[in-house]
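Hello again, I could really use a second opinion on something today. I owe you a coffee for this, so here goes:
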Amino acid sequence: MILKTDDLLDLKQTDYAVLFDEIEDIWEAIPKIKPFVADSVKGDKKGIIHPTAVVDDNVDIGTGTVVGPHAVIQGPTIIGENCQIRVGAYIRGNVLIGDNVVIGNSTEIKNALLFNNVCVPHFNYVGDSILGHKVHLGGGAVISNYKSDGSDIKTIIDKETYNTGLRKFGAILGDNAEIGSSALLNPGTIIGRNSVVYAGAVVRGYIPSNHILKVRQEQELVQKNKPA
């Protein structure tokens, strides 16, 4: 295994640790999400669902979870307890969501595993990805999951390039990773535990744990011409 699961993720903070059993590389858990959720969903809805929300039958919603106005949840999807699915959120299916998770307005999620206490609150896209415990995405941060030519996604770890064999692979974000507003994570990005990505950054490859990816923007202040 190139990156050990325990180096990035606390498996005690998800009910779906079984996805990481018998895998060679950590990204091999991503294609296991779809069949697992399809076999596991029961259609139990214990939370509060706004009457304007659209929720498929093959969706589980845990106790204390609130689904807000005009949210759309397609199955199969399993959502844990005490989550907030806010106005206009779009969950496209094959999604496993832990407890105390926030899916915000105009945020779209598909084929993903979100550990407990994840927050993706505003205008985010998360596809074919794994977000560890307490990961936070700033407003407008996007995880790209597909190359324009449709070829297999490769990731770079310690200057070595690895072919993941996946045509769709967004990102794996370690516990407590913080992604700044409007950042773009390219396909195959892996962010280590407790690492930070500055707002507006364009990220590719692997960022080790306990690091900060900084973006230095050069600015120039120019005097306006006076009106004629």
Remarks:
- The mean pLDDT is 96.
- Residues 5-213 form a domain with the UDP N-Acetylglucosamine Acyltransferase; domain 1 fold (CATH 2.160.10.10).
- Residues 4 and 26 are 7 Å apart (CA to CA).
- The chain has one domain: 5-213.
